[in-house]
Design brief:
With 122 residues, this protein is mostly helical. The protein has five helices and no strands. It has a single domain, classed as Fumarate reductase/succinate dehydrogenase, transmembrane subunit (3 helical TM bundles of succinate and fumarate reductases, Up-down Bundle). 87% of the residues lie in helices and 0% in strands. Keywords: Heme, Iron, Membrane, Metal-binding, Transmembrane, Transmembrane helix.
């Protein structure tokens, strides 16, 4: 699309962004599932193998990956619930679509913070 068309006819839409993020989190969850499988394989490999893997999960970059994976999971869950409403024909009004979109982002962030707070409290 030409820059003229983008500037004059296309306006940013939250629903488009949330749809794109839903697809990205789906890809991230697939990659995270491979990480989960690797964790289970090293766990079955014994204490030495698990110890080598666990040191990466407890490092800052491992914690960042786990945080992002947990947010992706909770965002995907919340947005999936939103889509279930659409499947039954509810929430198509523009005002409702935007309100539920913002709710998905906020609730997923709050749930992620709650999960991590509980994990660190133990």
């Amino acid at each position: 699309m030409s820059p003229f068309m983008l500037g004059q006819y296309y306006r940013f839409q939250l629903t488009s962004l949330l749809s794109f993020v839903h697809r990205l989190t789906g890809i991230g969850l697939s990659i995270g599932t491979m990480l989960l499988a690797a964790w289970l394989i090293t766990l079955a490999g014994g204490p030495e193998t698990y110890g080598m893997f666990a040191k990466h999960l407890t490092a800052w970059y491992g914690q960042a990956l786990l945080f992002c994976w947990s947010w992706a999971l909770l965002y995907h869950l919340c947005n999936g619930i939103r889509h279930l409403g659409w499947d039954i024909g509810k929430g198509y009004e523009l005002k409702t679509a935007y309100a539920t979109g913002y709710a998905v982002v906020i609730v997923s962030l709050l749930l992620t913070a709650a999960v991590w707070a509980v994990a660190y409290a133990k």
